[in-house]
Amino acid sequence: MKAGSWRLEKTTALPVKQRIAYIDWMRGLACVLMFQTHCYDSWLSPAARKSRFFGWSQLLGTLPAPLFLFLAGISFALVTDRMRQKGASPNEIAATTIRRGAEILGLGLLFRVQEFALGYPWSPWTDLLRVDILNTIGVSMMLMGVVCWFARRRATNGILAGAVAAGIALATPPLWTTWQPRWLPWPIESYINGVHNLGTPQHWLFPIFPWTAFAFAGLAAGFVLMNDWARARQAQAVFILGGAGAICGALGWWFDSLPVHLYSVYDFWHTSPNFLLIRVGVVMVIVPLVYAWCRWGAAQWRFSPIITMGQASLLVYWVHIEFVYGRFSILTKRGESIAMASLGLLIIFVAMTLLAWARIYTKGRGGEVLARFRKALRPASEGN
User: Fold this and answer.
1) Would you say the C-alpha torsion 91, 15, 23, 362 has a positive or negative sign?
2) Buried b / exposed e across 337-353, counting CB within 10 Å, b at 16+?
3) Statement: the pTM of the whole predicted model exceeds 0.70
4) What Å distances lie between residue 250 and 120, 242, 280, 288, CA to CA?
C-alpha cells in the first residue's frame, strides 16, 4: 500500500487495503508508545524518574510489545487467508510463513550483534543472546506457521490459536518457577522463561512464555475478522471484538480477585495469566477505537504520520534505539528534565516519521530515485 493511499471509503464490505489502514495505525501507535517509554527511560534524571509522570510513562510502556505481537498475529491471519484463497497448499503456506518468521528472528539476532558492536567494550557478551522483541516476533511467526499447518479452515484455525494462547498463559508461571527447565543451556532456556546466565529470570526479556500468547490471541482475532460474516459487516465485527476485549479485561480482574490461586508462586505483573488476559483485553478494546478514528475521524486526511510509521515499524524500531539508548543518543542519558526529554521525544517522532516516509517512497523505486538524483546533479557538474 503506497503512502497516501490509506483513505477509507464508507462501504459495507471493506477491501483488504482498507482493513490494513487501521492495523497500520495501531502499529504506528505502538511505535509512538515505544518512543515515549524509551526516551523517558533513557534520558530522565534520577530526580525526574521519581515523578508520577515517569510512572504513567512506564505504565503506557506495557502496551507496545503486546500491540506488536497481537498485530503480528492479525497480519499472519490475513496473509494465510490470502494464500488459501489463491490456492496455496498447507505445505506452501507453512513454508512461506515459517521462512518469514525465521527472517525476522535472523534480523533480531543481527540487531543484537549491532548493539554489541556499537556498545563495545562496555556491552557484556551475553547481550548477544538477549531475547528481544524481534526475536520473539520471529519465533511467534514460526510457531503460528506450524499451528496453521495443522488446521486447514478459518474456524478451526481460530479455535486452535485461542487454545494455544490460553495454554501458553497457563504454563508460564510454573515454567518461570517450579518447572523451570534448568537442564537446558541458559541461552535456550532464556527463550522459554527469560533466564540469564546466572539462572535468574529477567523481566526485561521477551521469552516465548508468556509473550507469544499475544501473537496467538491476535491470530485468533484475525481469523474471526476474516470470516464471511465479518467481511460483510466489518464495523460490527470490529466492535464486537472490542466488546469481547472488555469482557476479557473484566474477567482477568475478577479471576485475580478470587481467593483461590492455582500456582504456588504468583507474580501478577510478569507471569500471571490474569494480567495477560487483562492486557489482551485492553489491546482488543483499542482495535475498534482505532478503526473508528481511521474510518470516520481521519478519513479525509491525505497523510497520517502514525500510519506511515506503522508501515515501516521494523525500520523505525531498529534506528531509534541507537539515538535513544545507544552511542549516538541525542540527549544526555539519565541527565535531563521532563521538558528536555519531551523535546527529544518530539525530535525522535519527527525524524522517524520522515525516515518511514522515505522508506515507503523509495521502496521498489531505487532506480527511479537514483536517476532523479543523477539528473539533479548533472547541471551543477556541467556548469563546472
Assistant:
1) positive
2) ebebbbbbbeebbeebb
3) yes
4) 46, 13, 11, 17
